[in-house]
Structure formats: C-alpha cells, structure tokens
Input
Amino acid sequence: MSGLTAELVVDGRAPQTPALAPNGHLLCYVLSPLSRTGARFDTELWLVDTDDPATARRATADTATESRPRWSADSSTLFFLSDRADRGTAQVHRLVLADGAAAALTAWRSGIVDCLPLADPTLIALLACDEPTDQDARRARDRNDAIVVGEREPRARLRLLDLRTGLVTTPEVFGDRHVVELRQRPDGGPLAVLTQASSDNDYGPRTGQLHLFDPTTGATADLGAVGADACSLAWWPGEDGWHLGFLALTPPVLQGGTAVFDLAVDSLVLRNRTSGFPKCPTGLHQTDAAPLVVFADGLNTTLARLDPTGPTTLQQQPGLLDALTTTPAGTTIAALAGMRYQPPNVHVGPPNGPLRKITDTRPELDGVAFGSQRPLAYRAADGLDLDGLLVLPAGKSVSDGPFPLVTIPHGGPYDRYADRLQLFWFPSAQWLATSGYAVFLPNPRGGQGHGHQFALSVAGRVGREEWTDLLSGIDLLVAEGIADPDRLGIAGGSHGGFLSAWAVGQTDRFRAALVLAGVIDWGMLAATGEYGQFEAALGGSTGWDGAGPHPHDAVSPISYASRVRTPVLLLHGAEDTNVPLGQSEYFHRALRHFGVEHEFVIYPREGHSIRERQHQLDILLRTRAWFDRWLRP
Output
C-alpha cells in the first residue's frame, strides 16, 4: 500500500456525462482532468463497447474541450460539442462510426450551448446565443465596452440545424426568453421547451415557463409557469394522454428541496408526485414508457420508476448514482457510481441491477491506504434522526482513539454526503485521514436525502438547528472516545464555510478552523451573489427590508466576529461570483480588528470552484499544514 500525495489527488481524470447509445451496446463519455494546467480544460471523448470494456478507445484526437455527446436514433452517429477550431467557442461536430471521421457542422460565431438530434434525421435542435452584430463589432473596435445592465444580455435561443444544407435557422418563438432545456416527445412529436425570462441566475430561475414547439410546422403552445430552478424534462404516455414531468423547487420557499412535478398536457393539471416522500429526487429520465427517477436516499441512492400509483423502487445503490443515461426502452442504464474506497466510474446494467463497472479511469489510486469509512447514525438535540460519515485515520481503529477530529460540513445547504470515496481538492475526509486525523462528515437538516420538510427547516434559520446538529455528532464522538475534545477542528466550503465561520463565533471548542469561500454576511450575499433570491430565503431577509436590524444579521457570522478566538484560515477565489470575495474580505478585516490569529489567501483567476492545478495543490498542502499546526503541534 502507498501513501496519498497532493499530486495523486489533483492529477487524475474523471469520467463525466455518459451517453448510452439507443442500441445499448455503445457508450460515449467525457474524460475530464480534475485540475487545469493551461488556459482551458482539455477534455476527451471516449467510446466503449458495453459488452467488452477492454475495447475502450478515444473517439477524437484533437486538443479541445469536448462535451455534450448525443447519439442518433440508429446509434450510427455521435454528435458532440468541441472548440477544436476556435478555443472557447464550441461548435456541433458529427462523428460517423463507420469511417471514424469527425467534422464540424456549425460555425456559429457565438458558439453552441447544446444540441439535440431529433426524430427527423435531417434536423438537430440547437441552443445558442445571438451572433455578434455589426454594431457589436464597431463597439469592440472602438473599445467602447461599457456594460449597461440588462442590455445585450446573452440569451440562448432555440435554433434548427438542417443537416442537408448546413443552414441554421432561428424560429421566431418565445419572444426574448432564455431557453434552458429541450426534450422531444418519444414518438417524434413536439419539443418540450423550458424557458426563463433571463439568463440572470438571480432573477431567471423564478420565471420558468413550459412551452411546446413542433419542429415540422413551427407551431407553439404555452403550458404555463413552472417552479423555481426547473430542470430534467421527461415525457411519458398515460391513459389520459401525454404527460410532461420536470424537477423544481417546492413552492413557495426557495429552500424546500426539489420535487417531481407531473403535468397532464391535455388538461394542464399539475401534480407534485413526490409530496411527503422521505427521499429527494435528483434526476428524471425519459424512456418510451414510465420515466426513471433518481433519489438521494440518506447516504445512498435509490433508482425508481414513476408509475401511475407513485415511485416504484428498482434498486438502491450504495453511495452515489449520478449522471444516469438510458436506452429508449429503459431496459439498460448507465451511470457514474463509486464505492467507499473507489472513485466514480461508469457502470452499466438493467435498471433493477446489478450494475457492472466498464471504466477504470484512476488506477493510480488502487494502492493507496485510505482511512476506514463507516456510516454514522445519531440523533439531534430535539430527537430528529440524522446521519453522516466517520472516517478514521488510515491504519487505525476506534480502539486507537481518541484522535484529533476535523468536522467538515457540506455545502449547499441542499447537498449531502453520500457513502462514497471522500477525496477532493477541497478539505476532504480522506486527505486528512491519511495524515492521521479522524473526520466527521455530518448531514445536518437543510440537506438532501430526507424529504421536503427536512430541507425546508433551515429557511431563514441557518446556523440554528443545523449548528446544534453538528454539535450533537461531535459530542457523540467525544463520548465514544473517538474524538479528542482538546483537538477539535472544523473546515468547510461555501455553505460549509458559513458553518465553519459560524462555529468560531459561537464556541471556543475548536482549536482551528478553515473557511473556503464561506458566507459571512447573508444580507451582503443576497445583494451581491449571483443567486441572491435563494440566499435571501436562507438568511431570512435582505438589506432593503427596512432600517433593521434584520433577521439575517442574527444568522450572519460577521455579527459574532468579536467573540472569535479560534485561529482561522480564509481561502477564496478572486473571481467568485457565487459567494463574492468581499465575504472573506469582510471577515478578514473583522478578525484583524479584533486581533484574531488568521491567514487570508486569495487565488487569482479562480471562481467558486478552484480549478488551476497549482492552486488546488496549495489548498491541499495548506489545509494539512494549518491543522497540523494547531491540532498536532
């Protein structure tokens, strides 16, 4: 067995977005590096015979960012996006398997966002923003690049590519709305089209509308409004005609978890098909009959069929099942799945299982001695059943405790820890466990996997019960002799960063904390973050709700900065638009004002997720060094 290095963590490649051919015998997936060394991510398309994984081969040879593999109905042709000709500007390409040649089909100057081959083999539906105008070109020449908010905002529009002529046409439909997603009816009928009023991540998700578009006649129909953050369109036939389903946040609160909504197209009757369900849907997948639904189910994942009477469980996958793809008949599926000590790979099989692994993209991890990982079930202070994961130091057992313990709350908060390999560039359990730490990965209320009410309970109450949920788990681990109460640390990113910053303002129990792109002031985030309305629902108010004090002040870590005594490591991407850099700057100034020991590290060119290899390495090494300094002096 070998040790784990930072280079092993960041230098790997991971499969993404598998696409199963309609015949079920071929599969295409994107192979993507985990970190970036140049200006762009260079991804690759790979093909594999599902019956003979040893045949896996790269489909293309160019240096490019390749994505969105889509199959023709007869499984003979693969369509995909690539920027091989003009880096940063993706175009639709076609790969004919018989001759192995790939050729560009579009030269759209603003690039293509997505493509969908239609039942008519001569047509492909495209999503693409408008091409630059002559006026745009003049402004660029004159360096008149003033930004007028709301003007010339990029909006993806529905377009049609005629494969016979190569012409791209733009139907005059849906006004100036931004098109988010397309799905054609399985019998070759109309397209379901999901639109928003804007591409603005703050405003747009609350303005969703459903439409129909007939690619043959150009006829359209409006089906009405949909819930916030709608996605994952799927058609299916019913006794009362065609149904159209989608996932969306449960109204009216923007932090209540997703549900499966079922629209009877003829009557326009809309139903929530997962109301009261103790699991959380994460994907809806079209077949020729009843659609398949993927559910976050505690620490594991459940695959179900959406029957008229409700979801029928087909299989439960330990850990995570993600990016599912299916044949039209729904008899074969493929998805990304991983194990506690194995990274995600493509698995294939029948929907009721078992699934076979057909890729092995990170063999370099096979000899690593990971820390032992096990589920943890416990109860909150108010008696609510909770779960999480405990990872012990590599080569150690419970009897070797107590250990220095780092608690890592997850982001979201509508996310979760699944029982899979916990190894990432950001503070992660196995990275610390292989250096001698025990790690607690809690799933407090507000996250996925336990139904609507569980997710809803933090709206306007962040830092309240979810905080005591963390403490209950830590107290249990201390009582069981696993955690050393004098060597406790806490770390997290995004919402996990909020909880880490919140923790040090509430207690002095932690000897060190790490805050990566954490929320420090909810009112400021609602005003400047790209998902402002969602953040306002979590914080409970906005700065324009009156003179204050505001509800969000009471749940913002900045309000308790004068109490902080714990050393804090602050990490943030300079170009983060989700949780802007100003959040960490605010905390840094407060900690400096009160004389709190801390370090503040800014990563140039980085957004909410850190991508450059050297920056990822820095975070990994700095994380270990910080906790070694304070928990293992």
Observations:
- Residues 374-521+555-631 form a domain with the Rossmann fold fold (CATH 3.40.50.1820).
- The longest strand covers residues 483-493.
- The mean pLDDT is 96.
- The chain is about 15% helix and 35% strand.
